Amino acid sequence: MLIKEVAEKLNTTARSIRFYEEKGLISPKKDEENDYRYFTEKDLLRLSTILALREVGFPVNEIKVLLEDPSMSIQQYLNIQRSALYEKWIEMRDMIETIDEMVDRTTEDSYLPKDFYALAQHLKNLKSIRKNWTDRWNFDQQASDYDENIKKQGFSFNVHEGYDQALARIVEKTSLQPGNTCLDIGIGTGNLGSKFLQDGIKVIGVDQSEKMLEKCKEKHPQIETRKGHFLALPILDHSVDAVVSSYALHHLPDEEKVIALEEMTRVLKPNGQICIADLMFTDKVHREKVIADFQAVGNQIAIECIADEYYADRSLLTNWFSNCGYQIESYQFNRILGMIYARRHK
Ligand SMILES: C[S@@+](CC[C@H](N)C(=O)[O-])C[C@H]1O[C@@H](n2cnc3c(N)ncnc32)[C@H](O)[C@@H]1O
Fold it and tell me: Where is the HTH merR-type domain positioned along the sequence (predicted)?
C-alpha cells in the first residue's frame, strides 16, 4: 500500500506518517528509484498502534521504547499512562475548582487579592502533596516475600496480629452482592481483594507499587489491577459500590489521609460503603497510653515502628466521615489495629 492510501485508511496524514518514520517508529520499504514507500499489513498494524497511543497521550519517544522493549507489556505501559492521565485530570479539576471559587468571590469591578492568594496557596499545597509522596518503605522490594513475612511470629512487635480477623471482618461488614464493584486501595498482593471474588464481585486493585501489582495479578488473575495512588485514584467518579483498604492508609500523614478520604468519596456510588482496617489508635490519649505501655516494658522496637509510620487517630477519621454525611461504625481489634466502616446516604 502507498503512503496516501495508508493515510486515508487510518484517517491521518502522509506528513504524520513520514514524521513517525523520521523518528524511527516505522520503517516501510522504500523504492530506491522513485522514493515511494510501500506499507505491508504489519506496517499498517504497527502504525495504527502508534496512532492509537498518540491519541491517548503517549509521547513519541515513549512509544518507541514501548514498541521495542520486550521487558514490559503494552498492558503495563497502558496502566502507567492511565495513572498519569488521571493525575493530570485531577490536577486540572482542582485548578478549575479554584477558578470557580475565585469567580464566586469576585464582583464586576472588585476582588480581594488576599482571597485569591489564599486560594492559590491552597491549590499549590495540594499539588505539592500529590507530587511529593514517596515510597519510603520500598514496597517493590517487599513484594516477593510479603505473604511469607506477614505470617512470621515471635517479633517483639507484631503489626500483623489480628490481620486475618480484620480482613474477614471487612468482607462480612460490606456484604457486597454479585455484580457489585469493589475497589481495594493499596491492594498489595491481593489478600483482601481476592476474598470478594468468590461472591461474583468485580474487584479492582490499586497500588503504587508495580511489583505488588504483578504479584497480585499472578496470584489472582481475575483482579483488575491499576497502578495508582490514594491521592489520585485512577478510577472514574461514582463508579464503585465499595472502597476497602487494609494496612495501607498508615503510609500517609494525617493531612494526606483527608485527601485520600475525599478521593474515596469521589469514586463511590451513592449509598456506597468504605471500610478501612489499619494501624490506628482510637484517639490521641490512646496513642499516648500505648506508647507509654511499650516504654514501661522497654519495647523500643515498637516505639520506633510506630514513629516510622502514620498510625491514624481514629477519632479524626470518624469525625471527617460524619461531617461528610456518612453513618459510621468503628472497632478496635487490639491496641494498634482498628477498623472504620462508613456508609454514605446520598
Ligand atoms: C503493608 S501493604 C498491605 C497490602 C494489603 N492491603 C494487605 O492487607 O496485605 C501496603 C500496600 O499499600 C501500598 N501503598 C502504600 N502507600 C500507598 C499510596 N499512597 N497509594 C497507593 N498504594 C499505597 C503499598 O505499595 C503496599 O502494597
Answer: 1-69
- How far apart CA 286 and CA 79 sit, in angstroms, is 41
Query: Per the domain annotation, does 101 fall within a domain?
Result: yes
Same domain? For 195 and 324 the reply is: yes
342 close to 173: Cβ distance less than 8 angstroms: no
Q: Is 304 left (phi over 0), alpha (psi -120 to 50) or beta?
A: alpha
The helix or strand, by DSSP H or E, that contains position 90, with its residue range, turns out to be: helix 74-104
263 in Cβ contact with 233 (< 8 Å) = yes
> Would the CB of 191 count as within 6 Å of ligand 1?
yes
Long-range contacts from 319-324, C-beta under 8 angstroms, 24+ separation: 320/258, 320/261, 321/261, 321/274, 324/261, 324/265
**pLDDT range class, residue 110, cuts 50, 70, 90:** confident
- Ligand 1, atom 20, residue with closest C-alpha: 229
| Identity of the residue numbered 154 | G
How many Cα neighbours within 13 Å face the side chain of 284?
2
Same domain, 125 and 106: yes
Which atom of ligand 1 is nearest to 229's Cα? Answer: 20
Choose the weakest-confidence range: 67-76, 158-167, 183-192, 295-304: 67-76
Q: 234 with 321, same domain? A: yes
Q: What is the pLDDT of residue 154?
A: 66
Verify whether ligand 1 is closer than 6 Å to residue 208 (CB atom). Answer: yes
- What is the best residue among 167, 196, 207, 275 to mutate for testing ligand 1's pocket, by most ligand atoms within 8 Å of CB? 207
Environment class of 236 (CB within 10 Å of its CB; exposed 0-12, middle 13-18, buried 19+): exposed
Residue 220 lies in domain: 139-340
- End-of-domain residue from the set 113, 132, 151: 132
CATH code assigned at 159: 3.40.50.150
Instruction: Decide if pLDDT at 257 tops 90.
Output: yes
CA 186 to ligand 1 center in whole angstroms: 3
Give tens-digit pLDDT for 282-305: 999 999 999 999 999 999 999 999
Residue 73 within a domain? no
